[in-house]
């Protein structure tokens, strides 16, 4: 006699993360085999596959693509004639199993969840939106306006960053300082490396770390009317991977060369591109370095990334005319914009810190081999 199994969302070892259904691999009315992938889901750490615990027919789907679900929530019903397996045969690793209900008297095996390759494409809302007058909007813009999707689905990582930065802009009193620095030493040092070129970000991480040694208040955050030391010795680097923004922490950057910082940065970025969930975990930092110079941006102001107190925005390094000893010379220079939480330091302290970064950049080759 057929038995209905209620499939619940697995724990995925990510109970603090939001879970979003990406796509069902099996349609209602289609057969499914035990161990076959039922659907793909996404957390802020990784894209995962949820497998079927029994063979049968997918009778009902209760969670649609782009819908957010909670651990333990019923997401589907499978009708099966299979003998219900015992829970004793199910592995206990919470990262690999999740709950599964049934109307039968025996307890079914739990569906498993495994890491999948990051999803590419198809990340669009599939439900039609409603206009304020109650009429349906077209599901895709090409029905009226071309081939662009009407509603774009954003990843949990994107949503998390958006909410955090919106909260920062609303609650943190930002102020901005701008200057420029000679990039001649950076260009020369980068050109001298015969193997992989040093990432531009690495020079600014190194300079900021050295400057922080002399301006320790910059490593604090404002909390309940007092300054609290950040629980970190890292400087973060903002990176874009598959249109998601991540901050890569570089630990103890003042004790490393720019080349070592560059190698570490590339290693973590490679892990992010491979979908490594550990690399996606948020980790604390003193401050963040954000570089849009390679995109041709001359200067910009970034938003403080809480609970940090500052972010250094890097513009394009380009040759410009500069007056040296009453003569005009061509010199590579780069624009720097420092965004500060005014609750942590005042303008003079922040200016001294920014000037210290400039000094470190312009004396780079004097202190390093």
Briefly summarize what is shown:
With 369 residues, the protein is an alpha+beta fold.
Keywords:
7 helices; alpha+beta; single chain; five-stranded antiparallel sheet; OB fold (Dihydrolipoamide Acetyltransferase, E2P); about 20% helix; Chloramphenicol Acetyltransferase
Helices, strands, pairings?
Layout: E1 3-8, E2 19-24, E3 31-32, E4 37-42, E5 47-51, E6 56-61, E7 68-69, E8 74-80, E9 100-102, E10 113-116, H1 156-171, E11 174-182, H2 184-192, H3 200-214, E12 220-223, E13 226-229, E14 234-241, E15 244-251, H4 258-273, H5 277-280, E16 288-291, E17 310-314, E18 318-324, E19 327-341, H6 347-362, H7 364-367
Parallel strand pairs: 14-16, 16-17
Antiparallel strand pairs: 1-8, 1-9, 2-4, 2-7, 3-6, 4-5, 5-10, 6-8, 11-19, 12-13, 14-15, 17-19, 18-19
Helix pairs in contact: 3-4, 3-6
Description:
With 369 residues, this protein is an alpha+beta fold. Helix content is 22%, strand content 30%. The strands form four sheets. Strands 11, 14, 15, 16, 17, 18 and 19 form a seven-stranded mixed β-sheet that branches. The chain has a five-stranded antiparallel β-sheet with strand order 3-6-8-1-9, with no helix packed on it. Strands 7-2-4-5-10 form a five-stranded antiparallel β-sheet, with no helix packed on it. Helix 3 (200-214) crosses helix 6. The longest helix is centred in the middle third of the chain and has 16 residues, at 156-171. The termini are far apart. Residues 85-110, 115-133 and 137-145 have low confidence and may be disordered.
